[in-house]
Structure to design on (349 residues):
């Protein structure tokens, strides 16, 4: 009888060919999938680019329409002149005490639309006119604030440079209110640049104005009336808070320097420094803060001394207990004693 069994090894050979065919098919499938994936990625990228271009085009058209609309309403001219007149009008409406709160949001939308309309102007046309408008509005703080916002939207890099000059207050005359507004805007736009400018402010100024002994002599030669640009400003302490928020690496050293000049600074400025140093956990500041608690400035309020105690407790924790106990034994006022009692409970190890 003939042998019907397959030759030895033929089964394994067939299985090997099947495996090879399967592997080849898988390779081809993987290559096809990879090619399809890459093609899909390419199509998605192109689609995103087209969508971005369409959005940019729509935004430009919207800005142009806004510009045309404000030009039609204006009686002062076209282009930037029309937009600046609208900015002044709506800015005044926004800050008027008689403007109802429910209408303020709508007024703000008008202001933002005016600024957006400036973006439809040819490159380089809006910025020079904004700078000139800022110079011309020297005594109009509210208008200047909106002009600074417009500058930031039109050219962020140039705006950062202008904001820095406003914060320092040495290139042109600018009110304390606008300087503070510029400081907050700059700290958001460029924290590093804001930190450097504000550090200089805190090193050379107090609430009473500019300290001429701490500025370069050539600066006074260039601007003989420079000191007149820095009026008394009870809100000077706000510059401390804005500076601390920049996260400057030299914050502790700057605040310690200010406490070292305690006789030059007002109560609220010293208080702002104490609170910030407490939050920073500055052990270097403990001695100066204790001195302020024990020998507070004239006409101080008990709350100032309480802020000193809060800072000491925040810095030293349980290690502050002996000092707090000693202070409790000698203090007579209920406000201070109440704070000491509370902190002794909070700092228990």
């Amino acid at each position: 009888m003939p042998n019907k069994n397959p030759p030895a090894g033929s089964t394994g050979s067939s299985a090997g060919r099947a495996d090879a065919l399967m592997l080849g098919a898988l390779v081809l499938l993987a290559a096809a999938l990879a090619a399809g994936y890459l093609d899909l990625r390419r199509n998605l990228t192109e689609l995103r680019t087209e969508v971005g271009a369409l959005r940019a085009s729509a935004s430009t058209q919207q800005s142009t329409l806004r510009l045309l609309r404000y030009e039609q309403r204006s009686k002062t001219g076209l282009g930037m002149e029309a937009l600046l007149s609208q900015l002044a009008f709506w800015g005044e409406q926004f800050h008027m005490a008689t403007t109802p709160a429910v209408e303020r949001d709508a007024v703000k939308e008008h202001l933002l639309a005016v600024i957006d309309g400036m973006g439809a102007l040819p490159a380089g046309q809006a910025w020079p006119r904004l700078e000139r408008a800022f110079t011309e509005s020297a005594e109009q703080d509210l208008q200047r604030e909106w002009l600074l916002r417009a500058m930031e939207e039109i050219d962020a890099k140039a705006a950062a440079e202008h904001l820095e000059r406003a914060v320092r207050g040495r290139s042109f005359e600018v009110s304390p209110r606008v300087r503070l507004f510029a400081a907050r805007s700059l700290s958001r736009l460029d924290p590093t640049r804001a930190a450097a400018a504000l550090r200089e402010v805190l090193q050379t100024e107090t609430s009473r104005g500019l300290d001429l002994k701490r500025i370069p002599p050539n600066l006074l030669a260039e601007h003989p009336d420079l000191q007149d640009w820095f009026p008394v400003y009870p809100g000077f302490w706000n510059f401390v808070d804005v500076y601390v928020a920049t996260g400057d690496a030299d914050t502790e050293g700057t605040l310690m320097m200010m406490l070292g000049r305690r006789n030059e600074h007002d109560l609220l400025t010293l208080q702002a420094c104490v609170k910030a140093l407490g939050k920073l956990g500055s052990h270097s500041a403990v001695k100066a803060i204790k001195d302020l608690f024990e020998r507070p400035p004239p006409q101080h309020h008990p709350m100032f001394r309480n802020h000193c105690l809060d800072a000491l407790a925040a810095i030293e924790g349980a290690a502050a207990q002996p000092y707090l106990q000693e202070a409790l034994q000698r203090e007579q006022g209920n406000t201070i004693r109440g704070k000491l009692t509370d902190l002794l409970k909070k700092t228990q190890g």
